[in-house]
Amino acid sequence: MRYLILLIACWSVALLRAEGPPFLYPQSDAFKQELAKVRLKGLTLTDYHIHIRGGMTLEKAVQRQEASGIRSAVLENFGREWPLSDNAKLQAFIDAHAQPLANGRRLPVGIQVNDRDWFTRLDPAQRRRLDYILADTMIMGVTAEGKPRRLWLPGVVIADPAAWMLEYLAHNLRILDEPISILANPTYLPPCIAELYDQLWTEDRMRQVIAKAVAKGIALEIQAGSAYPKPAFLKLAKSMGAKFSFGSNNFDDKPKDLARWFEASELLDLRPEDLWVIP
Predict the structure, then answer these.
(1) CATH number at residue 238
(2) C-alpha triplet 17, 61, 217: angle, nearest 5°
(3) Which of 91, 157, 168, 243 has the fewest CB atoms within 10 Å, i.e. is most exposed?
(4) How many CB atoms lie within 10 A of CB 77?
């Protein structure tokens, strides 16, 4: 029995070494083939949407980068009722995550902003230390309790989708007027009206969002595991000269399936000049 237990333990260690820790991308043949395709086009992929939460750490992000060649950038949410709820917490976050690595470099550090007055509350000194600022459109309006309405939560009901979409488009354009670097999960729709995507996201509305992003130099994110934006938006954005970024929007330290990244790269025939980079 002891021999059997020892044998199982040794097998488990060997398997872990072969596959790598669970926070790394699985080194399957399919994954390696997809990476080889994008590298042949000269693309360097960067995940700008790695949250330090759910067991994810700076150290794991560094190891993921070293093991895959996909660059890592880390961030956390800044705003009321979010982990970085004031400038003191933001400063501590930057101090902890902007440390030089063994090679003298460091990972890019950013924030995801959730309050629409964030730029009035952000200490200019801390803002200058950030490499990028990411926002999405997934919080709009208020609940019956007076809390910001998080559109992804169960229970969100939209009685008049056509009227709501007019407000939502204006919401998108207001956010693009903020001094952000990346618009995450563009053209997101709440689950209750997701089936109306083609009806609500008309070409004219898509063009308005894309044109403002291009004018402001804001990247449009291609997010792992998200259905948004749809191919029609991506193709239109490419034709209008938009820049793209990649993100995972993790909730824990497990890597997401990057199939969406690779599919979009092939669909758009992305080249290095199509990707947003930190100025």
Answers:
(1) 3.20.20.140
(2) 145
(3) 157
(4) 17
pLDDT of residue 135: 98
Q: Which residues pair with 51 in a beta bridge?
A: 75
Q: Within a domain: residue 17?
A: no
> Does the residue 198 lie in any domain?
yes
- Greater confidence (48 vs 105) lies with 48
Closest CA to 79 of 113, 52, 56: 113
**Residue position matching structure tokens 């063009």:** 207
> Which residues are bridge partners to 245 per DSSP?
221
Q: Is residue 9 part of a domain?
A: no
Residue 203 has pLDDT above 80, yes or no: yes
Residue 208 structural domain: 24-274
Domain count, the chain: 1
**266: its two tokens:** 């092939």
CA–CA separation, 151 and 199 (whole Å): 19
Residue with tokens 């550090």: 109
Residues present in the chain in total: 279
> Six-digit token pair at 161?
């989708």
What are the DSSP E strand ranges found in the chain?
46-51, 71-78, 109-113, 132-135, 139-142, 148-150, 182-183, 219-223, 244-247
**Rounded mean pLDDT of the chain?**
92
In this structure, are residues 255 and 64 in contact, taking their beta carbons and an 8 Å threshold?
yes
Is the torsion defined by CA of 101, 106, 112, 117 positive or negative? Answer: positive
Fill in the DSSP letter of residue 109: E
Distance CA 201, CA 189 (A): 9
